[in-house]
Amino acid sequence: MSIAAPVRDERTRGEPHKDEEILTVRNLSKHFEVTGGFLGGRRGVVKAVDDVSFSIRRGETLGLVGESGCGKTTTGRCVLQLEKATSGSILFEGKDLAAATPSELRTVRRKMQVIFQDPYSSLNPRMTVGQMIAEPLAVHGIVPERSARDARVKELLGHAGLPAAMARRYPHELSGGQRQRVGIARALAMEPSLIVCDEPVSALDVSIQAQIINLLEELQTGFGLTYLFVAHDLSVVRHISDRVAVMYLGKIVELTDRQSLYESPQHPYTKALLSAVPIPDPAVELTRERTVLGGEVPSPLNPPSGCVFHPRCPVAIDECKAGVPELRTVAPGHLVACIRV
Amino acid sequence: MEQGGDLLLDVKNLQTQFATSGGVVRAVDGVSWDVRAGETVALVGESGCGKSVSALSIMRLVAAPAGRILDGQILFKGRDLLRLSEDDMRHIRGREIGMIFQEPMTSLNPVLTVGRQLTEPSEIHLGMSPTQSRARAVELLGMVSISDPERRLQQYPHQFSGGMRQRMMIAMAMACSPALILADEPTTALDVTIQAQILELMKGLSRKMGVAMVMITHNLGVVARYADRVNVMYAGRIVERGTAAEIYANPRHPYTLGLLRSVPRLDEPRRAKLLPIQGQPPDLSRLPPGCAFQPRCQYAVERCLREAPALESVSPGHVSACWVSAELGQKVTT
Lengths: 341, 334
What we know:
The structure holds two protein chains of two kinds. By secondary structure, chain A is an alpha/beta fold. In chain A, helix 3 (129-139) runs parallel beside helix 5 (176-189) and helix 5 (176-189) runs parallel beside helix 6. Chain A has eleven helices and twelve strands. Chain A has one domain (21-268): 3-Layer(aba) Sandwich (Rossmann fold). Chain B is built from 13 helices and twelve strands. Chain B has helices spanning 51-58, 86-92, 104-107, 114-126, 130-143, 149-152, 162-174, 192-209, 220-226, 244-249, 254-262, 302-306, 325-333; strands spanning 7-20, 23-36, 40-44, 67-76, 79-80, 97-100, 180-184, 212-217, 229-234, 237-243, 312-315, 318-320. The two termini of chain B are 27 Å apart. At the A-B interface, helix 6, helix 7, helix 9 and helix 10 of A face helix 8, helix 9, helix 10 and helix 11 of B.
């Protein structure tokens, strides 16, 4: 059980090994066949994720941002093995998941957990909070004895900032923020090393979002967790991420550390995204320059030729229609897929 | 106060309640606010604060029998909408006051063409002939930057993208050149680049046509960019009101202050930690005595437990409902 050495207490936890890659995704693609229409024939292929590569170091948070349909959630689901990748490889703690045996995958699934956007639809309405957190502990044989399990449930609730009495409540009795805390407690139950957070705060009220973000950060430090943080809110992603990947129509268009991305964005799409976020301060907004992108995200069934962003790009030239730009290094650790950079 | 226009909408002591299995919910609890001609007024707050119900009350669209407008006046151009007959009210909706909802797909009719839905308001309210209303529909689609309007008019809402559906909603709301548009979270369901397009479009149209706008949103950034005046709502009441510039620069209610502090800002250095508002949003059927925000308020004093504060002036055009708003002003500036 050396791979799955459980971390039961933050006190026993050493400093995370910052340089070790916990997750390496290479040339990941996930294509969905679209069928239907009059004769139920094949209408085409949606390249939801198209040749995406990135890695996450232990203890780090990688933000994955983009607008709806850009493939950020599908990327997360492929990492979690909830979707079978069409091609490419995913290495988790050094193990190629495509080559893993079913029992190895079972271990991997414990070590990789997920927190969903809508905690209500991911909680069972007929189970109490305590039962929901205890179930995986029993199923995976992590805490086989019942009394120890109850104690562990209480401890986990405490980690998520909930009182122990919450164990007897049902999901409908909880507020949105409390439900999200239950989802977090349940993810922690498996003593994971990587958590995929899929829009964990976007369904919550503004005043509650900050509570959950702070909690996620505290848990990361306490348990040495690694996060793949999938979200569309650029302000939130900036706050929580060490590095950020920007996706557009299934591709990563820019990938770099937080500071470079927000202070010197290179890809025209990243620049437009950042400029579209309104700042909660009228004095700032008055003087702020804005690039409002024209058009909309094209249909992934029929993506544009060459660079998929060229029809909306303010700096596109003829060459952009011809070739798909490669994600290349423009500065140390700063990757951009644009020939105009 | 910057806007010198005439009073267009004057909501006075509006009370809207819902009877639920858990008891009576005072969704809007004695709220007064106004809109002058041509200005953009925001109602800001989190889910359940009463901002949407305020808009529905103005349109008299609160779902009966559970929902009921108990008391108050809604003076629109001097006439109390709450006293109009249902027939007269129909001439107000769409003709005088337009409405844009959050999720356009649920407020558009899926089995009618875009053209049919866009021509209907001008035929019903303005008595246009089919040819006239069709020309008007083409003009409206052009106004909201939907290209190829002739072809688009024959399509159905499902053939439109989310952003285009919201443009169509705006076109429908503008069809009869109303004096006021109520926009309930008009861009919440949209991606950020599309949100920017739609908001710029709405602001541009409102300036060009002189339409006043009530913008209902939880997004403080959107408010900062587009609103002239802001009403901050909490638990069915307005807790602070002022010009956008004043509210953001000099918030005088702990809730407003908490909201502004809790969001990470792209233009500021990244903070090590966010400063959330503690606690949970209130349960409207079980509000505490005294100030509804008091259980979550870091500045609460003994008096807050017993007495609910009323809106008091803190500076010209700026009101706040808080017992410690004066001290708060000093705390924030120092």
